[in-house]
Amino acid sequence: MSEAKTKHLASLVGRAIAKRRVACRLTQEQVAEQLGIGIEAVSRIERGVALPTVVRLGEFADVFECSIADLVTETSARSTDQATYIDGLLSKLVHDDRIMVLDILEKLVNRLER
């Protein structure tokens, strides 16, 4: 993988980790403590300066009570992974709200296709 692609991947994974941490209402300090690493290490990963290993991704997933796939799926450029991510978002909504979101998504896609 090229250095540019690696940096881009690190940035995407870092944002996904930061987003999960915030959703779990945890500080970087709390995550660092649970992982047994320094706050700066968590910060570097979240900023995309460092790309976590698969083992470290598993540790983050344990802290956030999610799967490694949850941390990686939303960063994928594959449409099937993106669809899985959207499915996860939609599953949190009641039926009428899912219909509304799908309607908005359809209109947005139609607009962007022009």
From TrEMBL:
Keywords, comma-separated and alphabetical: DNA-binding
InterPro entries according to UniProt: Cro/C1-type_HTH (IPR001387), Lambda_DNA-bd_dom_sf (IPR010982)
SUPFAM superfamilies assigned to the protein according to its UniProt record, in alphabetical order: lambda repressor-like DNA-binding domains
GTP-binding is among the record's keywords: no
PROSITE patterns in the cross-refs: HTH_CROC1 (PS50943)
Boundaries of every HTH cro/C1-type domain copy: 17-71
Short name of any one Pfam family annotated for the protein: HTH_3
Domain of life: Bacteria
PANTHER family for this protein: HTH-TYPE TRANSCRIPTIONAL REGULATOR XRE, TRACRIPTIONAL REGULATORY PROTEIN-RELATED-RELATED
Name used for this protein in its record: Helix-turn-helix transcriptional regulator
Gene source species: Advenella mandrilli
